[in-house]
Amino acid sequence: MKNKQICDRWFTTQRVEEGLYLITEPHYYWYNRANLWLIKGQSQDLLIDTGLGVASLRQHIAELIDKPLLAIASHIHFDHAGGIHEFEERAIHAAEAQALRDGDAHEALCSQPGWIDIDHFELLPHSGFTVDRYKFHAAEPTQILQEGDVLDLGDRALEVLHLPGHSAGCIALYDHRSQSLFSGDVIYDGELLDELHCSDIPAYCHTYERLQKLPVEMVYPGHYQQFGKEKYQQILGEYLDRRRQPGCPRKVYSEHNS
Ligand SMILES: [Zn+2]
Ligand SMILES: [Zn+2]
Questions:
Q1: What is the CATH number of the domain that holds 85?
Q2: Percent of the chain that is helix, strand, coil (3-state, to 5)
């Protein structure tokens, strides 16, 4: 476990389509590895999520940035908001603004055993890196997001959807014109986490009922591969079948069903 090698480059960038880049941390454990989306707009660029914060994402994307950049945390978890302190303009939903301001490791999920683990680093981001010194940085949000806010990039606009369940401040960004959804950890094609200390299963059910009515062509998720509308509806339906009881009541029903 000692003598792990140091990587040459912590991040990789892939051009997904015109004006959209996917940045990832390939030397980090696939299960926690987040997708960071850089959207190039006409008058503003948008970075959705910022990774662990163990290497400079700001430097990594510098050559791609030629306009004002707003960094957004889809939610407070360390794999998404860990690097947001590096950016001058940063936004998060109101429900998790205080946690970001405080650098709240509990809310960021990185104070729990097992989340920050040296075994999750295949290569190290820099010399002297240890998980003991990993820190979730406090950062003052410069913009507090609310349901219905519109982020206008000049040639495209993204609406903030507040979609609690995985955590209280989860958002997705929705482009009405292309019907694309940047979904963070609200929906992705992998194991959904709804039993974290910050999770709320009835709220998650409510969020999924809402999403079933949203026309979506393409999802750009916070983890794993992007996917289209059939998979989108399938994930929503399967989750609700598993979790929902009539009216999606306040209590967790999974114990009763097993
Ligand atoms: Zn999360
Ligand atoms: Zn995540």
A1: 3.60.15.10
A2: 25, 25, 55
